[in-house]
Amino acid sequence: MTHYAHLQVEKRGHTAQVTIDNPPANTWNRASLNALKQLVADLNADDNIYALVITGSGSKFFSAGADLNLFADGNKLVATEMTMLFGEAFEALAAFRGVSIAAINGYAMGGGLECALACDIRIAEVQAQMALPEAAVGLLPCAGGTQQLPWLVGEGWAKRMILCGERVDADTAERIGLVEEVVGQGQALEAALKLAEKVARQSPSSVKVCKQLVQRARIEPPSYNLIHEREQFIKLFDTADQQEGVQAFLAKRSPQWHNR
Ligand SMILES: C/C=C/C(=O)SCCNC(=O)CCNC(=O)[C@H](O)C(C)(C)COP(=O)(O)OP(=O)(O)OC[C@H]1O[C@@H](n2cnc3c(N)ncnc32)[C@H](O)[C@@H]1OP(=O)(O)O
C-alpha cells in the first residue's frame, strides 16, 4: 500500500481508518498535509470506500495543529506555502466523496481542530479539549477555521474561541454544536467506526450527492438549491444504486451497492 507520511491508513470493509501519527502532538507539516491530500484523492478513486474516520495516535492529542517550529523565524515564503498546503489538504478532505468522521481523542487545537471542522461529523471523547488558539501566538486560523467554526457554533462562540482564545471541553463543544456526540475516554474511534458502518448501509450514490447538496446550502440560496435538489433526485435514476435500493426494499432483502 502507498506510504502516507505521518498518517497510518487501514481499510476496514467500506471504511478507511486514518490515524495522524506525528508524535508528540500529531502536528501537521508539509509532508503530512501533502500525504492527506494524496490519501483523499486515492480514497475517492477506491469504489469500495464509503467512509473515512480520522483520529490521532496516542491518548492525549488528536492534533495540536501546525508544527509551530515552522513559523519560528517569520519566513513569509513558509507562511505562504503552509497556508496553501493546509487549504489544499483540508478542502480535499471536505470534498471527500464519502462521509468523513473525526474521532477527537484528545486536544484538537488550531489546524487540528480545523481538520475536524473539514469533516462531516465530529465525535469527541469526554476529556478532549478544542480551541483555535492561533491569536495567542500571533497567528490566525488559516485552514478554514474563521469560516467553518461560525457556521457550526454561531458567530458568538466562534468569536469567543478565535478572538478570546477560549478552549472548550467536550461537553461544551456538544452543547454549542461543535461536536455531535461525546463518548468516554478511549471510545471515539469505536463510535466513529460504528457510525461509518451505518454509512455503508446507505446508497453511496445517494450519500455523495446528498453531501454536496448539504454543503451547497452554505453558499447558494435555497431558491436555487431546491431546484438543484429536484434535478439531482431525477439524476439518481441513472444509477444502478437507485434501482438496487428500491428493488431490495420491495424484495425484503439487503441492498448490494454498486457505487454507481
Ligand atoms: C493553520 C494552522 C495554524 C496552527 O495550527 S498554529 C498552532 C495552533 N496550536 C497551538 O497553538 C497549540 C500549541 N500547543 C499547546 O498549547 C499545548 O501543547 C497543549 C495545550 C495542546 C497541551 O499542553 P501540554 O499538556 O502542556 O503539552 P505540551 O508539553 O505543550 O506538548 C507536548 C509536546 O508537544 C509539543 N507541541 C505541542 N503543540 C505543538 C505545536 N503546535 N507545534 C510544535 N510542537 C508542539 C510541545 O512543545 C511539547 O514538546 P516537548 O515535549 O518537546 O516539550
UniProtKB/TrEMBL annotation:
GO terms for biological process: fatty acid beta-oxidation. The keyword DNA repair does not apply. Gene3D superfamilies: 2-enoyl-CoA Hydratase, Chain A, domain 1, Lyase 2-enoyl-coa Hydratase, Chain A, domain 2. It comes from Aquitalea magnusonii. The lineage of its organism: Bacteria, Pseudomonadati, Pseudomonadota, Betaproteobacteria, Neisseriales. Keywords: Lyase. It is an enzyme of class 4 (lyase). PROSITE patterns: ENOYL_COA_HYDRATASE. The keyword Lyase applies. GO terms for molecular function: enoyl-CoA hydratase activity. This is Enoyl-CoA hydratase. Its EC number is 4.2.1.17. Belongs to the enoyl-CoA hydratase/isomerase family.
